[in-house]
Amino acid sequence: MSPAQEADGCGCHANPKRALHDPAYRRALRSVVVLNLGFGVVEMLGGFLARSQALKADALDFIGDGSITLVGLCALTWAARTRARIALAQGVFLAALGLAVVVMAVWRAMTAVPPAADLMGGLGVVALAVNIAAALVLMRFREGGDANTRAIWLFSRNDALANLTVILAAGLVAWLGSAWPDLIAALIISFLFLHSAREIIREAGKELRREAALTRRTERDVC
Fold it and tell me: How many domains does the chain have?
């Protein structure tokens, strides 16, 4: 971020200190936790009712995001190195979710049954609205300065992309009468998981290396 951006008082950018200590940021995270965990449970139930693998994958994303955001909220007062380690754990967790969705989709492909397209599409639209609300709440904090803050923003952004995929898949299921669009959507969501996981792990690794270099420099100065 440039000095001009840091001095900008329009609220369009967030600097690290503001992101870590601004009560508005904490309120935003609490709102996102409630939205993600609450709707994740609803969507998971809907996924079983609709027999939709894509809805179940999206619900896992909601629940995972809500849990990770809750950890991120607790981590705000922790040291920079600890926050980077938490972000690294978030990335690994997201990668595990992505791989789990792949395994579930392959297993379901063996006994594929077309899901209820109307319920699938309806929940997809509601999920998109929930994620847009979460993304808008977090938007001005997306450049908060550490890997943990960026991880939370990436989760909300990719959720909205996943919801659009679910809605499109529901339309194709209704049109084709086939379960394959649902399974393909589940795989696409898993690739979003894996892409976000790679970005988060990369950013967290950079921060851990930077903190380690700073520690070594401080120790040399002391000696």
Answer: 1
